[in-house]
Model the fold of this input.
Amino acid sequence: MAANKKRRKPLLLSHTRPPSTTKTPSLSSQATRSLIRKHHTLQKQLHMAAFNGDIVLTERLQAQLEASGGLQKYQEASIQGQSSERGGDSSKVLMEWLNEFILEDKRHDMAKLGGLRMLEVGALKVDNACSRSGIFDVTRIDLHSQHPDIQTQDFMRMPVPSPKMLEEDGFDVVSLSLVVNFVGDAFLRGEMLKRVSSFLRSSRENAKNEARSSFPALFLVLPAPCVTNSRYLDEDRLEGIMVSLGYVKTRRKLGKKLVYYLWRYEEIGTKKVQIVSFKKQEIRPGGSRNNFSIVLQC
Done:
């Protein structure tokens, strides 16, 4: 019998992102995309160098990131990408889906959806569509907050509510919009997805309302190529990972650049969630594919 592999200890998200620097002028759309791509590439290289214990390479990559503007410039580029002028507010899709739920159940209207609690991970702005809707009580976190209404918090170190306090301190929806793809390690991406359910509270009180019965849920947004053009991840594999974690896909939208999902978390106690391991495995060969992957360990 083969020896069991040693399980890797999850890294902290704060170990994969550089410190911020001073503010920079606004960027063009092309410059914004270029900066974000470069930052992601350097950040992944930095993560691997740190993981491998290569101090010299780590320091060199850290210097390159800071020379290119650091996290501050990256966040400014991301905020500009989310601006209404560029159609970048991903939370508008979630609001569109809520409106669809309302249309499917004529007995209810949007005004009766108040009281839903949202945890927005990697928040950059406080005035997106969900924040303006009046439906959500939003808790916003980011590794390096740039706004007083956004808490500086590493999601992987965020205290998990106790079972007794989950109904009070938990959330109806956790938003991971362009967050999972930022994580530079496939294993840590899986650990992040695995951790979400610890913050989701029961939907027993939501059962009588069609729109609210879609919660608790995970709102997940990824760059489309992460799913449509990856060697290691496609729609079936992503759904397999999410089903293993106890989720059911209720909504999906594929745009030109992004893919959006709403995954409802099945009630704890209705069935036993049995996590299945998903290794990094090539499922779609080709020289033009990217290497994005999600690894899940049971």
